[in-house]
Structures are given as structure tokens and as C-alpha cells.
Amino acid sequence: MSTEAYAGVWRPGSGEQRFNRPLPLDEFKAVDKTYFDKGLRLVDLEIADGKYTGVWRPGSGAQWWWQGLCLDDFKTEDKLYFNQGLRLVTLEFHSNPKGIYKLPFDDDPAWKLANGNWDDPKAGHGTDPNGAQAFSFDFKHDFNNDNIGEEGQNVRAARSGIVVFAIDSLSCNTWNLKPEDPCYGARGEGNLVVIQHADGTAATYAHLKQNKVFVKKDDSVKVGQVIALSGNTGNSSTPHLHFDVHPSFTDWDHWTNTIRILFQDKNHACWIPRVGDALASNNS
User: How far apart are CA 170 and CA 192, in angstroms?
Assistant: First the structure.
């Protein structure tokens, strides 16, 4: 016998109506897709004890929903969807939020943050919140603690999405070059992967090792998938991984217009890494 308790509100209406018993997240997503394909849209969502219950009514057009977001991530997603012509129809508080992004590398204590966001108290990308790389991160694998770093480390997708740009043929390092150098003027990002997420945002993974990008344009990638090896190509002072997120794919070029994001790792749920913080990736 079921011990689940339900409460409902009924109003005049017409057409089809569906609701589900409390389901684990993956099962709920499957039910939602089935109803979406039949022309129904979520009009209410409840979360209790890690299970999901929804109500679907006839509807059309796009539908997006998230569960368990950090407040800052929620605000970012709401703004993105608002600009796409979508409006909130229901809101559910979640007591155990998680960041959307995971650290883009293996769980290895040799990974350190060399430069953080513009407001990092130790070392950031400039001092202007509107700067070109204001919300970027430079992650360095520095096993020897010599501040030089080592290339050839796994780079993992921080979030699932579709590859919209990938290049791995470049060999040039353009750091502090003079105009007469053959590599002068080569692209500063070096070898690069750009992954676009379901909400339209795009993450860049830069300075990758030559001939060591393992994905191509239009590939679907899952969070945690190894997409490349880290390198020292482009305008890079030492081997490192430059990572940031942009509002859309068209905004990624030249690293302009980055947006503030939060990570989750083994020790944090909704977190902006700062230089000197221990990094404990749970992305595999």
C-alpha cells in the first residue's frame, strides 16, 4: 500500500492532463520527454526526498527546467531563458543545490588555479568586472611545484553539450613574440575546443596540445568525457588550461563577454575557486 500523500488544486479547464507518482530524476526525465513529444508541457514540479513529481497540460513551444541549482546559477539561467522569450511558470526550492559545472580535469592534487576571476584576492584576470576575461580561469598542472607546469594532462568536459568548434593543428606559442617571429600574430587561444550547452552558453577550453583534441565539430559530449590533452599553444606563458563560459557561441571569439559560473567538486557544492584553494575534482 502506498504511503505517499498528495494535495492538489483544481480549476476550470479542458484538454488532456497527466501527473506522475514520485520518481527518481532519470525516470522523471524519461516521462517528461514522453509527454513533451505528445504535446504536453510541465505546469508544475515538486521535489521531495530526492524524487520528482510533475503535472503536464497541453502546450507548445520550448520548455526548459532545472533541478537543484545554486542561486547564482539559477539567476544566470533565468536571465538566459528570459532573453529567449521564456518565462518562469513554477519555482521549487531545493535544500541541497549543486553547481552546474565540474572541474575540467582529473582528481589530481597537482592541479592548481594560477589565475581566477577578476576579483580573486591573490591573482585574477584583470581588475574590471566587465573585462574581456573577467570570469575566466587558468588551471595549471604543477606536479613539481616549480610554477612552470606540465602539459599532456586529461582535459574533461565540465558540462555536457555539443562541440561547435575544435582545432588541434596549431604548434605556435605566441607568448612575448616579436613581429619578426614566424608565429607572431597566430591565434592567442592556441588549440581550442568550444562546447555549447543546452541553454545556449558556450564553454571554451584553450591552449590545448597539438594533435591531442579527441572531439570534432557536432560531436555530443558528456560531462567528464576526456576531450583533449592540455598544452602550451597560443598566447600562453606556461602550460595550462584556460577555461571560461560565454552567453552564446557567437560571443566566444577573443574571450570577450565571459559570464560568472560556479563549480562543484568533492568538497564544494556552489563554489568559485580562488587561487590557493585545494581542487578536488569529481569529474570522471
Answer: 9
Q: Domain segments of the chain: what residues?
A: 18-83, 101-264
| pLDDT value for 250 | 81
pLDDT tens by residue, 134-172: 999 999 999 999 989 999 999 999 999 999 999 999 999
Global pTM?
Answer: 0.85
Dig out the grid coordinates for 146 from the structure: 616549480
Backbone angles phi, psi at 29, to 5 degrees: -60, -40
Q: Strands (DSSP E) along 84-200, which ranges?
A: 101-102, 111-115, 137-141, 154-156, 161-167, 191-196
Q: Are 133 and 195 in contact (CB under 8 A)?
A: no
Top pLDDT among 198 and 119 is at: 119
pLDDT score recorded for residue 177 = 86
Burial 104-141 (b: 16+ CB within 10 A, else e): bbbeeebbbbbbbbbbbeeebbeeeeebebbbbbbbbb
| Average confidence score pLDDT of the chain | 91
pLDDT average, residue stretch 98-114? 96
Class of the CATH-defined domain 101-264:
mainly beta
Query: Distance between terminal CA atoms of the chain?
Result: 40
Residue 246 backbone phi and psi in degrees, to 5: -120, 155
Quick one: cell of 77? 539561467
- CB contact burial 32-51 (16+ within 10 A = b; e otherwise): beebeeeebbbbebebeeeb
**Residue written as grid cell 590545448:** 208
Cell numbers describing residue 59: 502546450
**What is the Cα–Cα distance from 208 to 155, expressed in whole angstroms?**
9
